[in-house]
Design brief:
By secondary structure, this protein is mainly alpha-helical. 68% of the residues lie in helices and 0% in strands. It contains six helices and no strands. Helix 2 (20-43) packs antiparallel against helix 3. It is elongated. The relative contact order is 0.14.
């Protein structure tokens, strides 16, 4: 959970880099929290409690936009891609999926260093 909260603490850091492990861990935990809030919203039958859970879920999603954008930009920096690619997430469905697949790629420099034969 430390990694997850470190992403929230670095919500304004758009200039450093992020590892693939850091990105995938955040995406997994963040997706699980959103799914849990959605399931709670559908599972509660009391109208007031359902509205409270829906409001909390909406506030959580809106408040997480900036940390998610910062993480994606840091991941794009690590891949050597242009940071303006983050705007492809504004294209419905396809843009966000493209961005997630792009961010899940391994770092090119680190991968090529593994296969170098010394000598």
């Amino acid at each position: 959970m430390k990694k997850y909260f470190n992403i929230w603490k670095n919500f304004n850091n758009f200039y450093s880099t992020a590892t693939r492990n850091e990105f995938s861990y955040f995406a997994l935990i963040h997706g699980a929290i959103i799914c849990l809030l959605i399931l709670l919203g559908y599972g509660v039958e009391h109208p007031f409690a359902s509205k409270v859970i829906g409001t909390l879920g909406g506030l959580f999603i809106v408040s997480s936009i900036l940390p998610c954008a910062a993480l994606i930009v840091r991941r794009l920096n690590a891949l050597g891609k242009d940071r303006r690619l983050v705007f492809t997430a504004l294209v419905p469905v396809v843009g966000l999926l493209y961005l997630i697949v792009l961010c899940m790629k391994s770092d090119g420099a680190k991968e090529s260093e593994r296969f170098l034969i010394p000598g």
